[in-house]
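Table S2 (continued). Query chain:
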Amino acid sequence: MIGIIVALVALMLGTLMEGGSPAAYANPSAAVIIFGGTFGATIASFGLADFMKFPKLFGIAVKAPKDHRPEMRETLVAFAGRARREGLLALESDLETVTDPFLKSGLQMVIDGLEPEVVEEILEIDTEAMQARHAHGAAIFNAMGGYAPTMGVIGTVMGLVNVLSQLDNPGELGGAIAVAFIATLLGVGSANIVWLPICQSLKNASSHEVAARRMALTGILAIQAGDNPRIVAQKLDSFVAGAGAGAAAAATAQGLAGKTAEGTA
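Corresponding output:
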């Protein structure tokens, strides 16, 4: 959302620097053609039910996603330590503290005794289904980014048709032509400032969630295999962004490994 605002402010500031007025771009008829046409074409392409998800998808796109991977890493390493000390069934009492549905589901399958191959297959299928849903949502805005400039051209042509009908009044031609080209401006501007950036934002959010799920899957399978907490932490380090993450994970793993050694001694 900050980026969209920055882009709009830059455009308006540039207009003012050139001696223009932002009010000159306020043209209701052009807005109706561009946004009405774009929304209509999108509904025709994806159906009304999918288009009704527009507000939800827009809200997801304009929010900065919070990175839960560091907390997830600590949870997985802690669970690995307890599983080595007390067994996998001991994790069931702590399962209610897990807020991530994907992680909770995977740990529950491990506690229930499912084979590692079955756990991995189920979680992979769930992740692929999530990616398909996310790709569909992003495709809606990608299509809007394609329709909007075309609607702008259509609006401009419609405006020029009206201009040609006023050739007997030369004094009005300049303003009428300017209004006609506002449609192109709105179409290209909405595509490149709103629809396409939102599409990319949704793709980025999807990639972020997929990475978190890959990390969860790696940790779940490591816990099921009985890996040392230090090894689990090292496996998860590659998924965690940020300087010092590896050192933090290693320190945590060393502490838990020490407790594990004391428990088994």
